[in-house]
Specification:
Blueprint (H helix, E strand, L loop, with lengths): L4 E4 L11 H6 L1 H8 L7 H6 L8 H21 L6 E4 L3 H8 L5 H19 L4 E7 L3 H10 L3 E7 L2 E7 H16 L4
Parallel strand pairs: 1-2
Antiparallel strand pairs: 3-5, 4-5
Helix pairs in contact: 2-4, 4-5, 4-6, 7-8
Length: 184
């Protein structure tokens, strides 16, 4: 019975040179991602740059392409899932893995998504931050107080908050202060 699932997360858990070990050591992975060089060249657009030099319209499709390369590699090794799920950016990988979206279309969509995010976010001084080790109900009270919002709940004690930069700074500092108190 096949009860395997592929679950994809968003871009928040990625780090500089994510997937580079696969690219350098797994010919199947490298061959797969290089098939899409006309749309995105991981080696030149991602692996030869510092993380802070990679714009979101490159970073988002790069995360997607690496995830799809890993899917290709796992299937090559006989690991075939029945179910797929994704969070945020990972939803695109799940949809593609389930054969409802072509890889090249996913890259194009995510380039556009990243470009829109970059363009729209440049119009305001906004920010997002992860808050960990503080119960979500306590974070909710803090963000309400500082005119921010919880934009993503990752677990019972890890959320992402968003809002204007100055409000996020205040809310973040308050979360840190309350987290350090035992009985808050």
């Amino acid at each position: 019975m096949n009860n395997k699932a592929f679950i994809f997360d968003g871009q928040g858990n990625k780090f500089n040179n994510f997937g580079k070990d696969f690219y350098e050591n797994e010919s199947s992975f490298k061959g797969f991602v290089n098939t899409y060089k006309d749309f995105l060249d991981l080696e030149n657009d991602v692996y030869n740059r510092e993380e802070n030099e990679i714009d979101t319209e490159i970073f988002q499709p790069a995360v997607f392409l690496v995830e799809m390369g890993i899917v290709h590699l796992l299937i090559d090794h006989g690991i075939k899932p029945k179910n797929f799920a994704g969070s945020s950016l990972g939803e695109y990988s799940a949809i593609c893995s389930a054969n409802y979206l072509k890889v090249e279309d996913g890259i194009k969509i995510l380039q556009k998504r990243g470009n829109l995010m970059k363009t729209e976010l440049s119009k305001i001084e906004s920010e997002m931050r992860a808050v960990m080790f503080l119960e979500n109900s306590k974070v909710q009270k803090i963000v309400d107080e500082y005119n921010c919002q919880i934009s993503n709940e990752n677990s019972y004690n890890q959320v992402v908050i968003s809002g204007l930069k100055e409000d996020i700074e205040k809310a973040s500092n308050e979360c840190i202060a309350r987290r350090s108190k035992k009985n808050c």
